[in-house]
Amino acid sequence: MVIFICDNVIIYMTEFINSFATEYNQTFMTAPFLKTIIFICCNFTYLKIMATIGKTKLKKIQFILLFLIGLWMIGIPFSQNSALKVWLYYLPNQLYLIYLGFYALKLRAQHLSTLAKKYLRFLGWLSIFFGLAILLEDTFVIFNIDQYSDIVFKINNRNLSEDIYSIILSIAIIYFCNRDFPLFTKTEHPLITQEPDSKELILLKPFCDTYQLTHREREVISLLLECKSNQDIANELFLSIGTVKTHIHNIFVKLDVKKRSEVFASYQLFSKQQMEHSL
């Protein structure tokens, strides 16, 4: 998101400060190092996000691919100024975004939680759609609107499809970090550092008694503490998604919390107090 901000600040400056726009565009045509760095950082970050959700490590071939894209963007500016030169500069990044979309969809075939697969499906189709949209918009603007002659030199640095993609991706990141992090197993949750032993499992009953949870709410919270998604809970308890959401809302009210991470925190605090009391 910091990279998005930096990129948009530069684009805004080219739109509203003529002197900066002239110097930036001239530099872009000969040595676009700043734009190249932004693209490489974005490409790596997109890849890292999808690999993290897919619980897989980055492969050497992917680092080689990023290196080759960077090398291409550094080498293309040395060719003769033309619309084709600019189009070829952007092309590998748009194709890479489409590749990331298929990569995310492929990761869904692995043994992952329902929530992880949901995010990968969303990111996959989002990247494919906007990769194509950005490519089509760039093709139209570069060959029909931008001007690269010695008499008239004008470049439109903004791509609306890319802006929309950045906004949607940023909203998804905020939503994920605020609500669904983490989306794997309880051992990966920052508030649950290890598998609960038998003593900790026993503490679930007094915890539920303390907050006067109903029988169904106890079943839901036990699965909630295992980092199960709403859909997983619904499938396991043979309930509708709406019913699960209602039970979770009631649990939040009784525990006086607003999100899942606070449920983990409440349970761990209760467990800690109980163990200290027993000592």
Main beta-sheet strand count, sense and barrel state? 2 strands, antiparallel
First and last CA, distance: 47 Å
Q: Find the structural class using helix and strand composition.
A: mainly alpha
Q: What is the helix fraction of residues, given as a range?
A: over 70%
> How many distinct beta strands?
2
Mean pLDDT: 85
Number of helices: 13
The SSE order reads HHHHHHEEHHHHHHH
Would you give an account of this structure?
With 279 residues, the protein is mainly alpha-helical. It has two domains: 2-183, no CATH class; 187-278, Rossmann fold, CATH 3.40.50.2300. 74% of the residues lie in helices and 1% in strands. The chain contains 13 helices and two strands. The chain has helices at 2-16, 18-30, 33-53, 60-75, 83-107, 114-144, 160-180, 198-202, 204-210, 215-224, 230-237, 241-255, 260-278, and strands at residues 147-148, 153-154. It has a two-stranded antiparallel sheet with strand order 1-2. Helix 1 packs antiparallel against helix 3 (33-53), helix 3 runs parallel beside helix 5 and helix 11 crosses helix 12. The protein is elongated, with a radius of gyration of 25 Å.
